[in-house]
Amino acid sequence: MADPSTPVEPSLEELRRYCNLGYARGACSRFPSSGEAADAVRFSIAGDRDGGIQIIYILEKDYGPLRHGPLVWDAAARDFSTGIGSPTIEAQARRFVESYLKRRVQS
Predict the structure, then answer these.
(1) Is residue 57 domain-shared with residue 23, that is, in the same domain?
(2) What's the CA gap between 54 and 44, in Å, rounded?
(3) H/E element holding 16?
(4) Are 75 and 98 in contact (CB under 8 A)?
(5) The pTM is what?
(6) What does the pLDDT read at residue 2?
(7) pLDDT tens track of the chain, all 107 residues?
(8) Which of 4, 71, 81, 89 sits CB 3.0–4.6 Å from 55 for a disulfide?
(9) Distance from C-alpha of 11 to C-alpha of 18, rounded to nearest angstrom
């Protein structure tokens, strides 16, 4: 999604090296050139109760926080009741929630 007009399926090596950890600026040729683009995004579970999962997201740039805030996953609606305003980051958050729910069922 670095360039939504020309989507690319990255190789497994590119996924490992650039996509999964972040901080691909200057290394990945498809990294957005926008000066405000985050270098990495992190998600953490802040709570899981009453049919909702509270998530904290942190957008990082130059190894420091650029922006952060809460997201709330509504289990009944299977969607976020709050948003970030970025479809790409919300898609990443959705995958994070799906992974968390799989691990929660397995434990």
Answers:
(1) no
(2) 9
(3) none
(4) no
(5) 0.78
(6) 64
(7) 566 778 888 889 888 887 777 788 888 877 776 666 788 899 999 999 988 999 999 999 888 999 999 999 998 999 998 878 888 888 899 999 999 999 887 76
(8) 71
(9) 10
Q: In the prediction, which pLDDT does 93 show?
A: 93
Range of the domain at 28: 1-36
Q: How far is CA 2 from the centre of its chain?
A: 13
Rounded Cα distance between 31 and 24, Å, is: 7
Say yes or no: 47 and 72 in one domain: yes
Number of helices and strands in the chain (H, E)? 2, 4
Burial 29-48 (b: 16+ CB within 10 A, else e): eebeeeeeebbbbebeeeee
Are 52 and 91 found together in one domain? yes
Which residue carries 């650039």 as its tokens? 18
Which tokens sit at 29? 């040729």
Enumerate residues 6+ apart whose C-beta is below 8 A from 65.
Answer: 58, 59
